[in-house]
Amino acid sequence: MSLTTARVVLLPETEESAIKLVDIPHPRTNHEHHYVLVNDQLYEFNEIDNDNPHSKTNHLRSVTKNDNKPVRSLILENSDSSLPGLVLEESNIIISTKFNFVYVLISYFNSQLEQGKEFRRYQSLQDLTDVLEEELPVISKIPESLLTDALEKISDSIDENGDKFYRYSEEKVYEFLKTKVEIISKSFPKSIQSQLVNPILYPVNIEDPIPENIINLALNKYSIHLISSYLHPKVESKLLDLYKFQELEAYITKVSEERSKKKAAEDQIQNLNQINAQNKRTLGKQETGSRKKPTVAKKITPKVSKGPLDGFFGKKK
C-alpha cells in the first residue's frame, strides 16, 4: 500500500492475532461485506467523512471543487520521536463499530419463510449449524458463543438432558426489534430530533406544545428507520405494522393542511397588499398627470367705439 492510497482504520484495542476479517452477507442487501471479528464480537466498518448535515455550520466547511470532499489532511505522529510521521491527504477515517449477528440470522430465517419453510421442530445447535452453513459458510468461522447468543434472542429454546434445542420464533424476533426501537427512542439524539422530527410536528401556532404521544410515535417511527438498514424490507414493513402510526399520520396531515390554509391566507393578504400598493402608485401618477398648469390670462386691449361726436372732435382738416 502506497502513501497515496493509505487509509486510517480504527479497530478495538486488542492483540493483533485476535483480529480476523470475515465476509458476511449484509442482512438487508444480501451482498457480502467485510466485517472484523475480535474475539467473540463482530464489528462493521463505517466511514466518517466530516459531513454532518445536522450541524448548523456544516455548509461553512471547505470542500474541493472536483469531488466536493472536505479540504483536510490527517497528520500522524509516531510515538517514537526518532521516526518520521505521515501526512495523509485522505481525511476520512474508517471506524469499526459493534455489529449484532442476530440481524444476519433474522434475514436468513425470513428468506426461509418466504420459500414456504415452517419452523415447528426444535433443533440442536449442531443441526442448526449444519443447516446454516449451506447458505452462510461464515458460520464455521463464527464463535459458538456468538451464534448461541443470537439464537437466544430470536428462538424458543428447551433443555433436554443438558442439551439445548432451538426453534425460530417470529414473535421473539419482533419483541427483540421493538426493544431496540424503544432503546433508540429513549436516547434519540436531540440534534436530529430538533432538525428533522420536530419541524414536521410543530402546530400552526408555534407556541402550542406538540402532544407527548405524537412525539413518542414520531421517535419510534424514526428509530425504525434507523435500524431498517439491517432489516429485510418485508421485516421492516411488519415491524411498522405493529405500531399504531395512523394517529401520527392523521396529526401530520392535519398540521400540514392547517399550514397550507394559513400560508394561502397569508399569500392572499400579501397579494392584496401588493395590489393596494400598486393601485396607490397608479392613482398617484394619474393625479399628478391630471394637474394642469394654471392658464395665464391674456391682456385684452379694449376697443374704442366711435360715437356720433367722434367726428366732431376729430382733427380739423
From TrEMBL:
One of its GO terms (cellular component) is ribonuclease H2 complex. It is found in: Nucleus. Residues 103-239 form the Ribonuclease H2 subunit B wHTH domain. Its main location: nucleus. GO terms for biological process: RNA catabolic process. The keyword ATP-binding does not apply. Keywords: Nucleus. Residues 10-100 form the Rnh202 triple barrel domain. Residues 274-317 are annotated as: Disordered. It comes from the Eukaryota. Non catalytic subunit of RNase H2, an endonuclease that specifically degrades the RNA of RNA:DNA hybrids. Participates in DNA replication, possibly by mediating the removal of lagging-strand Okazaki fragment RNA primers during DNA replication. Mediates the excision of single ribonucleotides from DNA:RNA duplexes. This is Ribonuclease H2 subunit B. It comes from Wickerhamomyces anomalus (strain ATCC 58044 / CBS 1984 / NCYC 433 / NRRL Y-366-8).
